[in-house]
Amino acid sequence: MISLRKFIFHHHNNFLISKEEIYSFFTIIELVVKIIRYHVSLGNTSNFFQKKNTKNIHGENQITLDIIANNNFKDILKTCSNIAGIVSEEEKKIITFQEQEKYGKYIFFIDPVDGSSNADINIPIGTIFSIYPRVSPIGISISEQDFLQPGNQQIMSGYILYGPATILVFTIKSGVHIFTYHPSYETFILSQKNVKFPDTGNIYSINEGNYNSFPKGIKKYLQYCKNQYDQNPISSRYVGSLVADFHRSLLKGGIYLYPNTQSYMYGKLRLMYECNPIAYLAEEASGKATNGDIRILDIIPKFIHQCSPFFSGTASMVEMVKKFILDSQSDSIKN
């Protein structure tokens, strides 16, 4: 068995960040994951899945677990001298830690509990994270520009999936690797190395309850999928947790779609701490990610809680969706 620590110190080859720094980040992540994993395992025997009378920056109801996970990440990240600041889905503003913001080398983005609305019915949920290098000089306070970087500047991203097993999936610009938490050893053990999307996929994941408000190109793509039953049948599978739906597509081949709708004209998923980390993983696993027009990782963010349409998965399926979207836009212009 290869532990997470052993893997990092023997297989890491990203010159942008040292082995010691990577391991310190994973030590923090692993510690909070153990706490979240414990609370998740209690299920509805505890009050951690109860809705609070609070909402996050996006107007979504928070549950107790959202707040506990967010506070744990903040408290533990304070102890990491290399973290200059963090952005969380559960916080309206950028969070900085006194002297760390002057001398910390990295910016940390976190969605503490992805899919938390599913927690009370025992559906897999997750944690999404990514790390960027700061752009301001060391020795001065960081600014908003340190956070408003395109996803192609990430040096590390990943997610944790809390399901029948607790899975860590990450990339440090050296392939995508999957680790499984082993309770007896109290650490993550390598499960799969250098994971790639299958060349073809036959699963699409989308909330079809919103079909009537989808753009025309997405409607046409879904009809295309449904008409493939005589050739290469494409099945619909949707959990409602980004991490869970993406993980299935990564291993089995497929595409995750969250287009803009009438209710969410600019998309619903958050660019900085949902779309970018997942897109970075997708491309490192030979997949693709787009907003329907351009590569997700090339989008220049305008604010930290910006949203975006999101299509990610097997490269050929993403290209097909993009073609349907662009063709429909072209038809609309002609008409």
Automatic annotation (TrEMBL):
<feature type="binding site">
    <location>
        <position position="268"/>
    </location>
    <ligand>
        <name>substrate</name>
    </ligand>
</feature>
<dbReference type="InterPro" id="IPR044015">
    <property type="entry name" value="FBPase_C_dom"/>
</dbReference>
<feature type="binding site">
    <location>
        <position position="113"/>
    </location>
    <ligand>
        <name>Mg(2+) 1</name>
    </ligand>
</feature>
<feature type="binding site">
    <location>
        <begin position="114"/>
        <end position="117"/>
    </location>
    <ligand>
        <name>substrate</name>
    </ligand>
</feature>
<feature type="binding site">
    <location>
        <position position="111"/>
    </location>
    <ligand>
        <name>Mg(2+) 1</name>
    </ligand>
</feature>
<keyword id="KW-0460">Magnesium</keyword>
<dbReference type="Pfam" id="PF18913">
    <property type="entry name" value="FBPase_C"/>
</dbReference>
<keyword id="KW-0378">Hydrolase</keyword>
<feature type="binding site">
    <location>
        <position position="238"/>
    </location>
    <ligand>
        <name>substrate</name>
    </ligand>
</feature>
<dbReference type="InterPro" id="IPR033391">
    <property type="entry name" value="FBPase_N"/>
</dbReference>
<dbReference type="InterPro" id="IPR000146">
    <property type="entry name" value="FBPase_class-1"/>
</dbReference>
<feature type="binding site">
    <location>
        <position position="111"/>
    </location>
    <ligand>
        <name>Mg(2+) 2</name>
    </ligand>
</feature>
<dbReference type="GO" id="GO:0030388">
    <property type="term" value="P:fructose 1,6-bisphosphate metabolic process"/>
</dbReference>
<feature type="domain" description="Fructose-1-6-bisphosphatase class I N-terminal">
    <location>
        <begin position="3"/>
        <end position="192"/>
    </location>
</feature>
<dbReference type="GO" id="GO:0006000">
    <property type="term" value="P:fructose metabolic process"/>
</dbReference>
<keyword id="KW-0479">Metal-binding</keyword>
<comment type="similarity">
    <text>Belongs to the FBPase class 1 family.</text>
</comment>
<protein>
    <recommendedName>
        <fullName>Fructose-1,6-bisphosphatase class 1</fullName>
        <ecNumber>3.1.3.11</ecNumber>
    </recommendedName>
</protein>
<dbReference type="Pfam" id="PF00316">
    <property type="entry name" value="FBPase"/>
</dbReference>
<feature type="binding site">
    <location>
        <position position="114"/>
    </location>
    <ligand>
        <name>Mg(2+) 2</name>
    </ligand>
</feature>
<feature type="domain" description="Fructose-1-6-bisphosphatase class 1 C-terminal">
    <location>
        <begin position="198"/>
        <end position="324"/>
    </location>
</feature>
<dbReference type="GO" id="GO:0005829">
    <property type="term" value="C:cytosol"/>
</dbReference>
<feature type="binding site">
    <location>
        <position position="89"/>
    </location>
    <ligand>
        <name>Mg(2+) 1</name>
    </ligand>
</feature>
<dbReference type="GO" id="GO:0042132">
    <property type="term" value="F:fructose 1,6-bisphosphate 1-phosphatase activity"/>
</dbReference>
<comment type="subunit">
    <text>Homotetramer.</text>
</comment>
<keyword id="KW-0119">Carbohydrate metabolism</keyword>
<feature type="binding site">
    <location>
        <begin position="256"/>
        <end position="258"/>
    </location>
    <ligand>
        <name>substrate</name>
    </ligand>
</feature>
<dbReference type="GO" id="GO:0005986">
    <property type="term" value="P:sucrose biosynthetic process"/>
</dbReference>
<dbReference type="InterPro" id="IPR028343">
    <property type="entry name" value="FBPtase"/>
</dbReference>
<dbReference type="GO" id="GO:0006002">
    <property type="term" value="P:fructose 6-phosphate metabolic process"/>
</dbReference>
<comment type="pathway">
    <text>Carbohydrate biosynthesis.</text>
</comment>
<feature type="binding site">
    <location>
        <position position="207"/>
    </location>
    <ligand>
        <name>substrate</name>
    </ligand>
</feature>
<dbReference type="GO" id="GO:0006094">
    <property type="term" value="P:gluconeogenesis"/>
</dbReference>
<feature type="binding site">
    <location>
        <position position="274"/>
    </location>
    <ligand>
        <name>Mg(2+) 2</name>
    </ligand>
</feature>
<dbReference type="GO" id="GO:0000287">
    <property type="term" value="F:magnesium ion binding"/>
</dbReference>
<keyword id="KW-0963">Cytoplasm</keyword>
